[in-house]
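User: I'm preparing a small set of examples for a lab meeting where we compare how different chains pack in three dimensions. I only have the primary sequence for this one, and I'd like the structure in token form so I can line it up with the others. Please keep the answer compact; I'll paste it straight into my notes.
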Amino acid sequence: MAKGKNSLKDKLLYSQKHIEKIITKDQKNKCQKFSEGYKEFLKICKTERECVEFIKEKAEKLGFKEYELNKKYKAGDKVYYINKSKAMFVLTIGKKSLAKGLNIVASHIDSPRIDLKAKPLYEDSEIAYFKTNYYGGLRKYQWPTLPLALHGRIMKKDGQELDICIGEKEDDPVFYITDLLPHLADEQAQRPLSRAISGEDLNLIVGSLPYCEEDIDGANLVKLNIMKILNDKYGVVEKDLINAELSLVPALLPRDVGLDRGLIGAYGQDDRVCAYASLMAHLELKTPNYTTITMFADKEEVGSEGNTGLNSLILEYFVQNLAQQQGANYREVLANSKCLSADVNAAFDPSWAGVFERQNTARVNYGAVVTKYTGSRGKSGTSDASAEFMYEITSLLDKNDVIWQTGMLGKVDTGGGGTVAKYIAKLNVDVVDVGVPVLSMHAPYELTSKLDVFMLNKAFKAFINR
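Assistant: Understood. Below is the structure token output for the 466-residue chain.
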């Protein structure tokens, strides 16, 4: 009798299984190897520009060529297109006519961070600071008292491009945002958590010693000393900082987390985890059935705005040019295309269980996450994948032995969030979000599961080889 009941349960009921109980020993070994490459990527790539350079280098080593606007490509050709140095498409031409549609995998390579204002440098009480403006949905109280590294590009007065990275090497200085000592923080402690640290409190210490090599009197000698150091090393003057993109990111290395080394801790895993997993899947691609575009977008964390975000016309224009080269109607190409919006979801955190709906929240070590819709509350700001496309994708994952789960971003009336899916869906492309669950999402140091990341790569391989 018991056996019959169990058989009926297995037949009719659905339950997700912990990946450790399913994955093979060979897959575990491959998972560890994949994770080491992923950690190296996270170590090197902390800004969009650095991600683009990494992807370009990897692609060119495997024979990818820069996209040419007026060239007609044939099946198996491999190209890449870089947009404004901060977004990128990697493309492999497929066997089928372009009119049959594209495979599209779209991730983003920007992450929450702290940017410098246009005129950042000032001195107060004989300490030199940079004024900042935070980027994306970060929690401001998490950023003070961390070692921070400065990354970015300065355009010098002679037009020379200067890329800098200070704080990542072991012997580099780092930068720092102060916080109050607990003995003096009574008033601060009474503030709501969201206002415990204001945006204007995120002032970055860059120096404390005055310039004293010459007989110069007056104010701003610490500020002068900082500019003298920058001028000696990089040849820049203060006005050059106006023509710059400079960002602060945690000066922390990716590390294994836990005695069992099952998790990866690092800055920027939202959404570079999907960027890396999709890149590595595409680089292994031979000649696919469908022409495949793997996209790495900018500006997702601030609404995908600007000419490097996917709320621009860049994807539509690119497909239009590609279709014209191949003699296809670009609207037909888009209508027949399929897309995985490659972005992460929240992992269930038992320490904060009250904000999650347990049954529909993704869990660490349960595989890649398929997210039917994002948005907030009444599904505001989402594309909401159709039943047909959900069936197509989940069936494909099952067929290829991809361990997957479903997820959503918290309880219905608690919060929510969005991805690039809606911007691709407005082009009449079928799209659904696929990523991994993340603990402490948008924090300076986020956690993902090695097993989930490995399975995400497998999911992308299944999709682009369909």
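A couple of notes for your slides: Residues 116-250 form a domain with the Aminopeptidase i, Domain 2 fold (CATH 2.30.250.10). The chain has two domains: 17-111+267-464, 116-250.

User: Perfect, thanks.
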